[in-house]
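User: I've been trying to design a sequence by hand for this structure and keep getting stuck. Would you show me what you'd pick, starting by listing the structure so we're on the same page?

Assistant: Good idea, let's start from the same input. This is the structure you sent:
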């Protein structure tokens, strides 16, 4: 990692001070979400490396499509970037034909987060395990509700995949981000919430399961869905992208700044607090390859799940 960072800085270093125009980073999600928290730590560190103002702008709605569409229309000059999860390219274009963008509309800059999904309930919920929730849902088809951050978001897909694996019919309720889901779960207006794991930080909620291959070290008592008999573990990752056509030298410059910022103690600490794994940064080439792989993987998943867009 250090050798790679040194090489990036050597290549892009002369360009780091060439552009003092403000840089806008569009985040297609709500304030207070895991990705929003991470980007707001990454932004000032990138600003220091780039020598130009960096502003983060939230554009939520449409399960993220609204913000992505805005970024796709931006000039490919390095002054507008997108910070989003892979689902914006691997899921939304599958269920919506009116987006006007695809993965080809962007050039990857760097991966900066890797998320795990979880399903949670209130501390006083009668559901003490994932099996409790499954049993209740089987007894009353459509009678158990769960909230999520939007149709086709990865938390939503995780629960749809669980429903498919367990033969359930759940009542799903979309919101505009994890913070709103947390509020509704805590208020008792919905039975459960499907969240990005990092959204549990500081919340008095009980995780019934994490959708991953292994338990998260930060929550060692939270079992995986896999160990409870349900092989549900959809991948979620994301980072910075630029509009297609952005010059390669500009991408290298931005990637170098991202690499340096992601290695700083402030970001590493925020990542740990957000239940991120080690080594979340990946360069433009590796990020681009994983995005293409996710498009193929989600196409296979969605072939067996019927979704209705918002």
């Amino acid at each position: 990692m250090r050798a790679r960072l040194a090489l990036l800085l050597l290549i892009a270093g002369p360009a780091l001070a060439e552009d003092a125009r403000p840089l806008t980073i569009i985040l297609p999600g709500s304030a207070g979400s895991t990705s929003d928290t991470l980007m707001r730590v990454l932004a000032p560190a990138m600003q220091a490396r780039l020598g130009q103002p960096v502003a983060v702008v939230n554009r939520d709605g449409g399960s993220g499509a609204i913000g992505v569409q805005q970024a796709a229309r931006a000039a490919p000059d390095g002054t507008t970037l997108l910070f989003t999860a892979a689902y914006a390219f691997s899921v939304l274009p599958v269920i919506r034909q009116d987006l006007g963008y695809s993965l080809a509309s962007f050039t990857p800059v760097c991966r900066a987060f890797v998320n795990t999904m979880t399903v949670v309930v209130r501390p006083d919920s009668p559901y003490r395990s994932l099996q409790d929730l499954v049993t209740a849902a089987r007894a009353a088809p459509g009678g158990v509700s769960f909230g999520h951050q939007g149709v086709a978001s990865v938390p939503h897909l995780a629960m749809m995949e669980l429903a498919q694996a367990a033969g359930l019919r759940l009542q799903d309720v979309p919101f505009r981000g994890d913070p709103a889901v947390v509020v509704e779960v805590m208020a008792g207006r919905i039975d459960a919430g499907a969240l990005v794991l990092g959204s549990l930080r500081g919340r008095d909620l009980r995780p019934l399961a994490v959708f991953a291959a292994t338990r998260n070290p930060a929550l060692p008592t939270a079992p995986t869905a896999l160990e409870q008999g349900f092989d549900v573990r959809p991948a979620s990752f994301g980072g910075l992208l630029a509009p297609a056509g952005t010059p390669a030298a500009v991408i290298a410059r931005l990637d170098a700044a991202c690499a340096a910022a992601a290695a700083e103690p402030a970001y590493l600490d925020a990542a740990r607090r957000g239940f991120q794994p080690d080594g979340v940064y990946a360069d433009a080439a590796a990020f681009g390859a994983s995005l293409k792989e996710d498009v193929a993987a989600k196409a296979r998943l969605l072939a067996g799940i019927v979704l209705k867009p918002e």
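That's my pick for every position. To get oriented when you compare it with your attempt: Strands lie at 23-27, 54-58, 80-85, 106-115, 117-121, 145-148, 171-174, 192-196, 206-211, 236-243. The chain has eleven helices and ten strands.
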